[in-house]
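Lab meeting prep.
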Amino acid sequence: MKITMVKKVFADGSPCKKCGEIEEKMRAAGQLARIDQTLVADEADNQSEGMQLAARYNIDRAPFFIVERDDQPAQVYTVYFKFVKEVLDAETSEDEEIAEIMNDVDLDFL
């Protein structure tokens, strides 16, 4: 299995707030070691690897995760807690999942 995390950088070079929050949660939980590669969707560069992946998978928010397993189509996750539960087999609370889904105002669109 290969896991790619795509986070966003704004055209002015500043990082996406939500991406930083998710990355910090993953660091605190020891989950970053499970990520094989981290790519950047750079608003200033439509040819950046992250922007190309967002276009390929028709993703319009960041961060997102692409999970590739042998002989299966890639799965894309735009909800961190769903990714954690289904891919990393970690426990999440229903309240955390609902809060993330309902808090779309913090999501950064590509």
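Slide two material, second protein:
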Amino acid sequence: MIIWVRNIVIILLILTAIYIALSTLSRYRKRQKLRNDVKAGQTDLPEDDYIARGMRDYERGLKPKLFIFVYLFPLAVMALLGYLAQYS
């Protein structure tokens, strides 16, 4: 039983590291895209205001919320496999 708890804790730590890496990389790419838009002259706003508004819109969007599936999908697969192994 303790081995299962230890494995679940290790898996959750790995999933947390993946979640942090994905969200950080995605935010970095969005910020770079906004900076490139400012440099290309696609906006009349100052750079800081444009980036702040763009990041605020990004945080309200769907993509950051989809990163939750980093936790849900593997845990659901593990639960399904555990259920099938127990009751098959």
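Talking points for slide two:
The helical segments are 2-39, 47-60, 63-66, 69-87.
The radius of gyration is 20 Å.
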